[in-house]
Amino acid sequence: MSLFKDFSWKPFREGMRLQYRAASFNTFSHPHFPGPDSLVGSPTFGKTTSPISTARELHLALKFYS
Known about the structure:
By secondary structure, this protein is an all-beta fold. It has no helices and three strands. A hairpin with an 8-residue loop joins strand 1 and strand 2. The two termini are 27 Å apart.
């Protein structure tokens, strides 16, 4: 998920602008589980032990266009 907001700087110079960016990965922090362990004889046979997804991540940035 991404959000962008542009701010015009016309009083200083035509075409100048500042852009604020916010990007989020795994925004809602939903876990993604792998399939169950299929190795017969394993102590975790048939069980899903841990999620394979990463935690929520947020990136913020400013970009200046001249």
